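Recall the central idea of this unit: under ordinary conditions, the amino acid sequence of a chain determines the structure it adopts. In this exercise we apply that idea directly, starting from the sequence alone.
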Amino acid sequence: MFPSRILLPLSEMSAAALLLFAPVHVAAQEAGETVAAATAAVSATGAGAAFAASRYTVNAGDELDVFVWGEERMQRQVLVQPDGTFAFPLAGTIKASGRNVSDIAAEVRQRISLNYRTAPPDVTVSVREATGMRFYVLGKVRSPGSFTSGTAPNVLQALSMAGGTADFADLGHAVILRQTPQGQRVEPVQLKRLLKGGRSLDPGNLAEPLPTLASGDVLVVP
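Accordingly, the structure predicted from this sequence is:
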């Protein structure tokens, strides 16, 4: 027997589904405001466009909303397991870690298509809570600690989340501590030059993109 295609009455739809029916101009306005805010945060470096174009990759520990249109029984909130996967009806085990939500949705749709005589319904995947994207900012900053983000932040965005630098911070010797399969790696970060903005940076595109923090990274400002 094949899955039904009966749509729920509008009054019974979940909040997540209702959001998907929001007018296009509202979604576009909110997206524009988000990109504008991100661009303002890094306007001194000229890297706002690169940040806006980046796409979040899912991490183990993230919570996802998976919605199969017209199939109320196949709407799920799933937790990405430590091995980077989650299970979904008719699709089996899906690898999610290190992928963006568009690729995940495409794989879910392709797998469930075997259960439909006609074209399978559309599948939407969104990040409900990015608890897996956790990074740390320590040292001479105003609010050191751990932080979560829906996107991978660059060093200036991470620093702003920590309240900015504190007095007597040594901006010339900041580092990122990153765990790799080969062991822990230390990456120097030239915060001093970046925070001077137009006084030390040439106009136009940056020769090199801003360093971006990955899940588990530690930004240390001595």
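Residues 10-41+57-129 form a domain with the wza like fold fold (CATH 3.30.1950.10).
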